[in-house]
Amino acid sequence: MTIIYLITGALLFLFFVLFAITSVREKKLRATIISLLCAVITGLLWYVYFIIVSSNSLLLIVLFAAVILFLALYLLPFGKPQTIKSNPTEQRVDERDIMFAREEYEPGTAKYKAYYKMRPENKKIDDKIRKLPEILEPGGRYYESELAWYIIRLFDFNESMIAMVDGEVNPQKESLDPHATTNRIKEKTLELGADEVGIADLNPAWIYSHVGRGPETWGSAIENNHKYAIAFTLEMDYGHVEKSPYLPITEETAKQYMHGAIISIKLADYIRSLGFPARAQIAGSNYQLMLPPVAQDAGLGELGRHGYLISPRYGSRIRLGAVTTDLPLIPDKPIAFGVQDFCEKCKKCAVNCPSKAIPFGDKTTVRGIEKWQLNMEVCLMAWRVMGSDCGLCMKTCPFSHPKAFVHDIVRLGIKNSPFARTISAWGDDLFYGKKASY
Ligand code: SF4
Ligand code: SF4
Q1: Maximum CA pair distance of the chain?
Q2: Which of 193, 255, 320, 347 has its CA 20 to 30 A from that of 72?
Q3: Does ligand 1 come within 6 angstroms of the Cβ of 320?
Q4: Is residue 379 a part of any domain in this protein?
Q5: Together in a domain, 27 and 66
Q6: Is 123 in the pocket of ligand 2 (CB under 6 A)?
Q7: Model confidence at 46, in pLDDT bands (50, 70, 90)?
Q8: CB–CB of 292/200 below 8 Å?
Q9: Which atom of ligand 2 is nearest to the CA of 306?
Q10: Is the CB of 184 inside a 6 Å radius of any atom of ligand 2?
């Protein structure tokens, strides 16, 4: 028993030392200090307890059993995590109503008049937003001329690819087995540079009803009857996200949108070469659909309190891309790995959101989907005040920690155990602080 007791103490000590090394690598001073303190305190207490009670092996067993019980409660699967209740109504979102469209309506233009005749209730807040400096333009709190210029060019490059999202389909259609084709398409998507890929049955509820942005006629009906969506994630660089809310987060966003556009355009080309229609969905005013629910259907993650998709591997630090198609494919299923339960307890994004756009309270049902509804108007106001796309919710989300053994243990606990979900939210605050400093 003595040997087992001492080995357990050594493993606990090593875990905290590893945590400290990981924290040094991640440049997290508070987590480094606390994990080193935990290593020293655990090691000392374990040893002192051993000295005091070493003559009584029953007392050693009690402490050893308490640790094993804690680990079992933390790591072993107890019950299934909550899933998102989603029964979408047929009512589709009009792209003309999304904030990125609304902020583009210039006073005095025909679009401006037509939109606010249709939605007079949005005029007051939109006019207020338009009075703020535009993102990446002088006047934003964190504006930096050089970097802003470079980021604008990245977005311009992205927009220059819009003409390539669709094209001619090879008239020689291949006869394809859906299972083999699914594997082939997933391999191709990863080979093109995506980090994760999934297939969804394309739910028409996720397709915008009318064009609100981009080169197509404003207000025209959006037609996309494809059966499937191939959705993928791109990891955002941890270092850039950590610099949120300064411009490097926006640089990283623009960069990943550009990668996403190239991947989806090339993937759509590949599918059309097999004889099937395919349409790349790229950022820069060219989406026909809402990517987060599509990616969720494709089994790539769960929607969090902050409205982003959270991936099991990369957490909130991702951007999404997609291609819609009629190529015969086998869809994936949505996944649940504890995000809904964890978000109920955590609320860190809501605490750190400078505009209070993220709700602290319960989910609401929006068009048949139970979710935390973000206030996009005040979020965009914060972006314009800062001059960047903020990203504080992404940066502070506990799921955004980079891949490392200690974080993987926590993610496993969150996936498996209600006990882990409760204490991990508290633990993240302890090690990393409740509020982000910047
Ligand atoms: S991006 Fe910033 S303002 Fe918008 S929801 Fe996230 S934290 Fe709030
Ligand atoms: S910060 Fe917390 S509450 Fe917000 S999305 Fe991440 S896990 Fe959920």
Answers
A1: 88
A2: 347
A3: no
A4: yes
A5: yes
A6: no
A7: confident
A8: no
A9: 5
A10: no
Residue 87 counted as domain residue? no
Sign of the torsion formed by the C-alpha atoms of 366, 378, 155 and 147: negative
- Ligand nearest to the backbone CA of 346: 2
353 Cβ closer than 6 Å to some ligand 1 atom: yes
The pLDDT tens digits of the residues spanning 81-112 come to 888 888 888 789 999 999 999 999 999 999 99
69 Cα: distance to centroid of ligand 1 (angstroms): 39
Non-local CB neighbours of 3 within 8 Å, separated by 6+ positions: none
Return the H-helix or E-strand segment holding 161: none
Instruction: Provide the pLDDT confidence category of residue 222 given band limits of 50, 70 and 90.
Output: very high
Same domain for 163 and 219?
Answer: yes
Record the tokens describing residue 346, joined without a space: 């955590």
Task: Render pLDDT for 137-164 as a digit per residue (tens, 0 to 9).
Answer: 999 999 999 999 999 999 999 999 999 9
Omega of the bond prior to 354 within 30 degrees of 0, cis?
Answer: no
Tell me the residue range of the domain where 331 lies.
95-395
Centre of ligand 1 to C-alpha 361, Å, is 16
Give the pLDDT mean for 314-337. 97
Residue 86 falls inside a structural domain: no
Residue with CA nearest ligand 2 atom 7: 343
Digit-coded pLDDT (tens) for 333-379: 999 999 999 999 999 999 999 999 999 999 999 888 899 999 999 99
Ligand 2: residue whose CA is nearest its atom 4: 349
Whether residue 317 sits in one domain with residue 168: yes
What is the per-residue DSSP string for 96-141?
A: GGSHHHHTT--TTSHHHHHHHHH-GGGHHHHHHHHTSPPTTSTTST
With cut-offs at 50, 70 and 90, classify the pLDDT of residue 47. Answer: confident
Are 120 and 201 in the same domain? yes
Residue 438 in domain: no
Residues 337 and 405 in one domain: no
Rounded mean pLDDT of 171-194? 95
Point out the ligand nearest to the CA of residue 373. Answer: 1
